[in-house]
Amino acid sequence: MKATNSKDYDFLTIEPHWQTFWEQDKTFRAPDDFRRPKFYVLDMFPYPSGSGLHIGHPEGYTATDILARYKRARGFNVLHPIGWDAFGLPAEQHAVKTGTHPASNTQNNIANFRRQIKALGFSYDWDREIDTTDPKYYRWTQWIFLQLFKQGLAYVDERPVWWCPELKAVLANEEVVDGKSEIGGHPVERRNLRQWVLRITAYAERLLADLKDVDWPDSTKRMQEAWIGRSEGAEVAFKLAEPAQGELKVFTTRPDTLFGCTYMVIAPEHPMVATLTVPGQQAAVAVYQRQAAAKSDLERTDLAKNKSGVFTGSYAINPVNGARVPVWIADYVVMGYGTGAIMAVPAQDQRDWDFAKIYALPIVRTVQPTADFAGEAFVEDGPAINSAHGDLNLNGLRIEAAKAAIIAWLERTGRGVRKVNFKLRDWLFSRQRYWGEPVPVVWVNAEDYARAKAKLGAALGKNEVSYAANGVTHYALPLPDTALPLTLPEVKSYLPSGAGESPLANATEWLDVWYDFETGAAVATTEPRPAGESWVHGRRETNTMPQWAGSCWYYLRYLDPQNSERFVAPELAKYWSSPDLYVGGAEHAVLHLLYARFWHKVLFDLGHVPDHEPFRRLFHQGIILGEDGVKMSKTRGNVVNPDHVVAGYGADTLRLYLMFLGPLEAMKPWNPKGIEGVHRFLRKVWRECIDQDGAVHARISADATLPPDAEKLLHESIKKVGEDFEALRFNTAISTLMILLNALQKLPAIPRSTLLDFLRMLAPLAPHLAEELWVRLGERPSIMAAGWPVFDATKTIADTVTMVFQVNGKYRGDAVVPVAVTEAELLQLAKDHPKVGPHLAGKPVKRAIWVKGKLINLLV
RNA sequence: GCCCGGGUGGCGGAAUCGGUAUACGCAUCGGACUUAAAAUCCGUGACCUGUAAGGGUGUGUGGGUUCGAGUCCCACCCCGGGCACCA
User: Fold this and answer.
1) Fold for the domain defined by A231-421
2) Topology of the domain covering A799-859
3) A760 CB contact with strand B at below 7 Å
4) Helix, strand or coil for residue A368?
5) In chain A, where are the structural domains located?
6) Fewest beta carbons within 10 Å, which of A79, A134, A568, A583?
């Protein structure tokens, strides 16, 4: 391919020219060539929204693209793919409004995103493009769900969701604003609905422990640690004073303080509230429960300052000393953690202290506070006191020893057990939506399930999944793999069913079927039942999967995107493995990254992937703020449209500017003036190569030689730019190239080879310009195939060095000295130095600290 | 409240291992080129003091360690992010 014939830096001609070349040449195709070392660099794929590419997208994408191009130059077989996370709520809302199928709107948005991304010259292997809404893709999302199902990691349960009685619809969190529906402003309430749930808690321990194996930002690791929230302690059973009431189990991290438990608290939603409430307290408890239920999550935290509660009228027996302790109901205890009940130890827990003070409950110290302690609850370490009864004596023991002793005693006497508790909850995996992957399950009755079980056995999975409604129990039959994908049916309306189910509940011919449990074949029940033992009556699952599902494993599909037999061939999974670098926003620090790790570990356990973690190295690009220093938003009108920048300055300028703004991870404001600076730099590159008539500049020649200091700078630059690229420090790599170009500009003649080296370093950053000039200088495209300039350490060795003179730690002057200078010579040079000498005059040098090659500090 | 990250010129930022603080870029001002403008090139570029040479101060604040601190330690202030009655 020839270069363009533009006389000046006409990026509007040059950029499309080389984009066409790359596309036709398939320059960035990643062949499955197992002999070469691989490098897999991944972007978080975008949700193709209707508003098009946001300036934040090309920030991360440029960073990975530079690294991908650099790694290709260093000889790696680079996999750099892109795709679309295309299921999602906005497309569904658009469908509800317009009546058009969400797929058509989604495809339009994808086409726009693809156009915008291609205009930026990213080196993606477009043959590997994926789309989570493509049945050929989501077939495997459904398949992975079935693997989870069969492992007993999927189940159904009643879970509270936002329900809007007016809209007769389930709402997502983001559709609820200030306790009202986003659309129409109607009141919403929490309502229990049957949901699919994934047992991520079964992997909690490994998800936590394996964080040590990944190279991630510390803050992200900590967020995951906090989210998983592991804590060690004991589960203790308190017998109730009224034996008929049974017992109350609590989780505590401080079993050593059991002697200080003076009351108990259960959550307002606790199942034993009714049992424990004595007749005289029923009215008060009912009122309190209603108040608690009416509070939204927000109010509950807002009102957290003043604790409130109500006595049930019942007592429990403290297992260590037989003391009668009252059982209270209070909303500072939540049902979602531990057992939903606590033993309250006001002396060693500030929350319990606050509550005890309000309701005048007794406080017994069981850890001796330090003499100067002036606070309320004492949570520091100290010797146990008031902690002996019968054969049990903790007195004098510090917290750790006391815990060990009490847990041993609890276990020996059968009153409690050591217990590890997690904050992590199981993953609510269903949405009452149309635009998502259908859950590949058919519900059948008990007899039909038994028949299927008898025939298929273990193929139905480890656990039965069932639920009861209106006195009938329904059993989940997983679709056979061969029946996948289970595609979305056409529906007349994208509005929810009105009964808390998705719009799929109205697709009667799809929903209500004669179902062959062996083949997965289905016929609408409006047709006669086909003949055969394995045909049963079934109702399909109407829930669809959340948007997380498709993004949980997409990085694996890129390895083998066309495979119709498997989600990824084992030899490709082995070769490409998982991404060597994953770049995306910190907003996904917890959920996406945790869910993907969970799925990956399940696939690892089943032997489908070779590595137990999906993302070895992770990096978060920072947010780009508007010109005004605040977050870009349409309402503020400070949004930067990448299309406009490309039209005005070119993609290379945009790429360079995004990287020159500051450190990749930093939050930084957009500055339209700054973009002029990098654009000028690219124009300067052009001018150094091409003269006014569009010919190669006469100053460039194959015969020219580089002066030693310029040669030294060139090789230092080669080293630094390479190191900066590896470490994702693109801002300093660019300034290095600017310094180098400024130096070359001052030379009377430039060796052609030096400019070629410069262009190869520039190519990952500004690939279109580099490609164009490379060819203009007589080389063959693509510059990407030309390798990386060779760093020669011998060229960076100088025989002189600038030595700094300090007197008593203060800079007083410097001099260029031979590298082999001696201390005595330096001392003489300092004394003779016009600026340094006066500071030494008449004073003996008591000590000299000499940092070779840098400075000498003379103490007088 | 708890857990992270960060405070450096007029602005974005650099200083990677404790060794000349402010690289590179923007903006400013001055100059060159031009009939003119644009473009380009050269120079300027923290503060106080001084005619100048120079001297002093300076990386959020206050201490400390060190021959030497933007960098390490202690305390505090401010900004950003995350979590939040998690027993």
Assistant:
1) Isoleucyl-tRNA Synthetase; domain 2 (3.90.740)
2) Ubiquitin-like (UB roll) (3.10.20)
3) no
4) coil
5) 146-199+428-540, 231-421, 799-859
6) A134
pLDDT digits 0-9 by tens, A635-694: 888 889 999 999 999 999 999 999 999 999 999 999 888 899 999 999 999 999 999 889
**Three-state secondary-structure class, residue A774:** helix
The secondary structure of A778-829 as a DSSP string is TPPSPGGGG--PPP-GGGG--SEEEEEEEETTEEEEEEEEETT--HHHHHHH
Q: Which two tokens stand for residue A252?
A: 């505590």
d(CA A592, CA A583): 13
Cα A696 from chain centroid (whole Å):
48
Judge if the beta carbon of A301 is closer than 7 A to nucleic acid strand B: yes
| pTM of the entire predicted model | 0.94
Q: What is the DSSP string of A115-144?
A: HHHHTTT----GGG-EETTSHHHHHHHHHH
- Predicted confidence (pLDDT) at residue A315 exceeds the cutoff of 60: yes
Q: CA neighbours within 13 Å on the CB side: how many for A502?
A: 28
For A92-144, the pLDDT digits (tens) are 989 989 999 999 999 999 999 999 999 999 999 999 999 999 999 999 999 99
Which nucleotide's C1' sits nearest to the alpha carbon of A300? B85
Q: Please tell me whether any atom of strand B lies within 7 Å of the Cβ of A625.
A: no
Distance from CA(A118) to C1'(B37), angstroms, rounded? 37
Q: CA-to-CA distance for A374 and A394, rounded, in angstroms?
A: 24
**Parallel/antiparallel/unpaired status of strands A618-619 and A581-583:** parallel
Q: Which residue approaches B14 most closely, CA to C1'?
A: A732
**Angstrom distances, CA of residue A449 to CA of A452, A466, A478:** 5, 10, 11
A357 touches strand B (CB under 7 A): no
Dist CA A568 CA A612 (whole Å) = 16
Where is average pLDDT lowest: A451-455, A464-468, A803-807?
Answer: A803-807
